Structures are given as structure tokens and as C-alpha cells.
Amino acid sequence: MGTSETARYVRLRVDLVVEITDTDDLTGAALERIDADEFMPDEERAHARSAVREDEAEALAYLVEPFDLLGEVPGIDLAQASWSSEQVDYDPDADEWDLDEEDDEELGGIDGAGAQTAGRAGDGAARP
User: Which of 8, 11, 26, 35 is the most buried (most CB within 10 A)?
Assistant: First the structure.
């Protein structure tokens, strides 16, 4: 079977650092998403609501949806996704935050490729 006849899998890596500028807006949006999820059991909904009220990273994780990001991309079928978020001490001037340098090392010097897969905190891997 030739390459054109077989499925080809690609790992898309993305590493984002976001600044939370309005905790109330972020938490409110996450609570709305949780309340609108018709498939979430009541017990899990109560836990999720509590988690996003206590931790902005949890709130963000409930709003990021890899399936939404790639749903309109032609010619692909999302096979698996996982993502997480965590609070970090961020210093844009520190060497550890120079993502371009890390990408160059991982890709043998090729510039412009991505960094990491994503999952909702506590959820692990998700499949469509």
C-alpha cells in the first residue's frame, strides 16, 4: 500500500502561555460552558463548578476545546486529544520561556513547528 492509500497521523504540538486579565469573566464563561453541557452528570457538574471557582487554570481548561479548534480543518479527522492547564510563574525574559529555542532543538533546527498536545485538567485523554 502506498503512502496515499494509508492514513497518516500527525502530532500537532502547541504550547501557550496566557495572562488572565479578568478572573470573573473567565470563571463566568467557564460556569456557563459547564451549565450548558447537557451530557455532564449532575455530580460531575457540581465538582466542575467548584473547581473553576477555585482555580483559574481549571476555568481555562473547561473553555479550551481542541475539537472546536480543528473541527473546520479540511482533510483531517481528529483521532485523539488531551489537554491541561496549570498556573505557572511566567517571566518572558527568562531563558526557560524561549519556546523558539526549544522547537529548534526538537526539530533539528527546523523553525516554525509547534510544541504540545492539549487535555482538560483532570480529564486525561479525550476521544471524539
Answer: 26
Residue type, 29: A
Q: Encode pLDDT of 37-54 as tens digits.
A: 999 999 999 999 999 999
pLDDT digits (tens, 9 = 90+) for 90-120: 888 888 888 665 554 554 433 333 333 333 4
Q: Determine if the pTM surpasses 0.70.
A: no
Residues found in the chain: 128
Q: Which positions ≥6 away from 104 have C-beta within 8 Å? A: 110, 111
Angle between helices 56-63 and 23-36 (to 10 degrees): 50
DSSP label at residue 122 = T
Identify the burial level of 30 via C-beta atoms within 10 angstroms of its C-beta, where 0-12 means exposed, 13-18 middle and 19 or more buried.
Answer: buried
